[in-house]
Amino acid sequence: MTANVAQDLRTAAALDAILWLQTDRAYDDALVRSSVPLCLTGVNPWRPPGLLASRTYAELTIPAPDFPERREMWSSAFPVLDPEVLTDLAARYRMSGGELRAVAAVADAGARLAGTGQPGEHVEPAIATVTRGDHPAPHAGRPGAAGGPAGPDRRDRVGVPRVAAHRGVVGGSPVAPRRVG
User: Fold this and answer.
1) pTM score
2) Closest CA to 128 of 147, 109, 153
3) How far apart are CA 167 and CA 119, in angstroms?
4) Domain boundaries, the chain
5) What span, in angstroms and rounded, lies between the C-alpha atoms of 96 and 41?
6) Helices (H) then strands (E): counts for the chain
7) Measured between alpha carbons, how far is 112 from 146 in angstroms, rounded to an integer?
8) CA gap 119, 122 in Å, rounded
9) What is the pLDDT of residue 134?
10) Considering only CA atoms, which of 148, 129, 145, 127 is closest in space to residue 24?
11) Nearest residue to 162 (alpha-carbon basis) of 29, 58, 68, 56
12) Mean pLDDT in the chain?
């Protein structure tokens, strides 16, 4: 999705594809006029009356991952970590797939910079980096949002997509150390 919704709709139509839109921003009437199939996803549902009146609509609530699913997500992101550590992380943190992928990337970068190639000792600092709330919060003020009443720590927040058709398991693999500099 780019900033040009009309162009995205034309591209999806030409490819006979579904256009997947995050509902964390407002869209114009081009969606109502288009016949391109849409998949709307986001933490907060977006139900514009014009779109609902002109299209077939179904709303799916995908439950937050339970403990075994979170354990598998952590295991996929960090396959080299001790099983007890993975169990502890799955019990303490409830992150979205995007947040977990960010943690894996930050931990990997820390391991590479340290020259170890092993992300284990970099996981907790990576979690702190990802969850500290330095990014803009589209829903600031909502409990659990960065800057909201529950604060930026995501241990107690689970973002549950309201209108969605996709949830995947985070993938990861060990990376050999690289020389920096």
Assistant:
1) 0.53
2) 153
3) 25
4) 5-54, 67-156
5) 13
6) 7, 2
7) 28
8) 5
9) 52
10) 145
11) 58
12) 75
